[in-house]
Specification:
With 243 residues, this protein is of the alpha+beta class. Helix content is 28%, strand content 33%. It has a 7-stranded mixed β-sheet, sandwiched between helices. It has a 5-stranded antiparallel β-sheet with strand order 11-10-9-8-12, with no helix packed on it.
Length: 243
């Protein structure tokens, strides 16, 4: 499904799944998203027709609810692989849990909304936003950039989408076959800050501390070595550097 304009592809995907059964793999894409959302309710800014904004509807009823972080990691790896394939001059990394950075700038974000029944995930709305050709961002998004602005030339959005779908399918099937533990080391290898001491801030007080990412646990929490010893963080508890 391809629309000229939607408030949010995730919202529209949720709407149609409430009306009837929707086949797994259905995609909702829009050229202009007027109320896009990121992690923790952040606004996702996107110029009309310049970026890729879509939601993939999946039914991973083989995935345990407590392992849902694995799905987020698989999608982040797929987006990273797509950036490397389509724009080999750029080297992406994943900012925990699933933003994509290139040269310290955010170029893509992922918002996954799961429906859980019993012990499994019955439906996932996988929202993906990639800054492809947008040239200007508001001052509030000074850490954002597009692939074309970093590359110096425009990128074909449809080509990027085609490669993305291929990698999402590849990592989704790998997650199904190997389980979350099968992709965790790949994810950690692509994670910004792994094995390096950097300055973080403990939220909400923004207290600075030095930490080194050592791993991500089964629940998706960020595991770090700090001066006070090993610690684990959820998304709301830590502010991360970009470089």
């Amino acid at each position: 499904m391809h629309f000229d304009e939607l408030s949010s592809t995730n919202d529209y995907a949720r709407y149609i799944t409430r009306q009837s059964v929707v086949e797994s793999g259905t995609v909702v894409r829009t050229d202009r998203q007027t109320a896009g959302r990121g992690q923790l309710g952040a606004v996702w800014e996107s110029s009309p027709g310049e970026n890729l904004t879509l939601t993939i509807i999946l039914h991973p009823d083989w995935l345990r609810a407590e392992a849902q972080a694995g799905l987020s990691q698989a999608v982040a790896l797929a987006v990273a692989a797509t950036i490397r394939e389509v724009t080999p001059e750029l080297t992406p990394c994943i900012k925990w849990p699933n933003d994509l950075l290139v040269r310290g700038k955010k170029v893509a974000g992922i918002l996954i909304e799961n429906t859980i029944s019993g012990q499994v995930i019955t439906q996932s709305l996988i929202g993906i936003g990639v800054n492809i050709n947008q040239s200007n961002f508001s001052e509030a998004l000074s850490n954002a950039a597009s692939l074309s602005s970093l590359l110096g030339s425009r990128v074909d959005i449809d080509t990027f989408q085609s490669v993305l779908f291929s990698f999402v399918e590849q990592y989704y099937e790998r997650l199904r076959a190997e389980g979350p533990e099968g992709i965790r080391m790949d994810y950690l290898h692509n994670l910004f800050g792994t094995g390096a001491w950097k300055l973080y801030h403990r939220m909400p007080e923004e207290v600075p501390f030095w930490g080194c990412i050592t791993r991500v646990d089964e629940e998706g929490r960020l595991c770090m070595e700090t001066a006070e010893g090993p610690q684990k963080f959820t998304l709301k508890e830590i502010k991360q550097p970009l470089e």
